[in-house]
Amino acid sequence: MIDVLTIGESMVLLDPLEDGPLTGVSGYRQRVAGAESNFAIAVARLGLLAAWISRLGADPFGRLVRRCLEAEGVEVHAAEDPSAPTGIYFKERLAPDSVAVHYYRTGSAASLLRPEDVPEDLVGQARLLHFTGISLAVAGRLPEATLHAVELARKHGLQISFDPNLRPRLWSGDEARRALTPVIRDLDLLLAGEAEIQLLLGETDRARLLADLRRRGIRVVVIKRGAAGALVASDDRLVEIPPARVDQVVDSVGAGDAFNAGFVAGHLRGLDLEECGRLGGVVGAAALAGTGDYETIPRWPEARHLAAGEGPHEVDRT
Ligand code: KDG
Fold first, then answer.
1. What gap in Å lies between CA 72 and CA 294, rounded to an integer?
2. Which residues, listed in sequence order, are joined to residue 128 by a DSSP beta bridge?
3. Which fold has domain 2-314?
4. Which of 34-48, 86-100, 188-202, 270-284 has the lowest mean pLDDT?
5. Is 251 one of the annotated active-site residues of the chain?
6. Among 20, 214, 256, 291, which is most buried by a count of CB atoms within 10 Å?
7. Is 49 helix (H, G, I), strand (E, B) or coil?
8. Averaged pLDDT score across all residues of the chain
9. Which residue, by CA, sits nearest to atom 3 of ligand 1?
10. 217 C-alpha to ligand 1 centroid (Å)
11. pLDDT grade for 310, boundaries at 50, 70 and 90
């Protein structure tokens, strides 16, 4: 049984050795990143079985992505495409919370993932499918493949979680609204940044926003509010999650994926909404501490400990 299945593009991340404009940096550290694989890695670190569906270039970068995910315990279901490359992107860290991204991913192998590449038997073995708006924003066939995975997940009775993950470099607000509004319905979990869900639904009033989401059949709504914490709403509960303690903000990219993983890991273990929110908060906060997207994410015992407010304890992060 797979706990969490996800689908999307991962890229080699060229992470600058220094902060500031890329015209001035002396070099890059090679890493791996991608919202859905960040999520899968974090879920695996939190002790659950995660699988990731994608497509990789038949190139050293594709091998690097596969090796990195497998080393983190994620089951990789990705064919190698001999005629399309693995995508690459650069981060440009102007400030910890102002990180620009530069993509070299047009025509990448992952963007060409087709519906028939999504193995139905694999979907049938999973408890939850997690997908994000990035997979629907990429030009190519990945959006179609992702929506097919969602259809299969419904057919097989999986829980479904979704994060809009708006990326302005991939599409405009209007394009995102057109594509994502129909997707935001009949979900078990919606995990969204406050500004992005307000933009997508054209509503800033909290009560009206939550009522709209309830009408759309969203069972649990999680609104991520950054330094203000989070709000978790279900049919009968509305819980304010205070912000987790943040020791250091080095780079905010990937923190949302980490929050999602903490929340979902708690949810799949049957924890109460508030505990799930606290787990999301501490796992998200941990991701802020490093320049990579996921490297500083804790393992389950440490995450539980932090969420219980007992303070950090030493664990092996290798
Ligand atoms: O959430 C983090 C992602 O934005 C990052 O890893 C890169 O997947 C990525 C993307 O498409 O922007």
1. 11
2. 4, 159
3. UDP-N-acetylmuramoyl-L-alanine:D-glutamate ligase (3.40.1190)
4. 86-100
5. no
6. 256
7. coil
8. 95
9. 35
10. 27
11. low
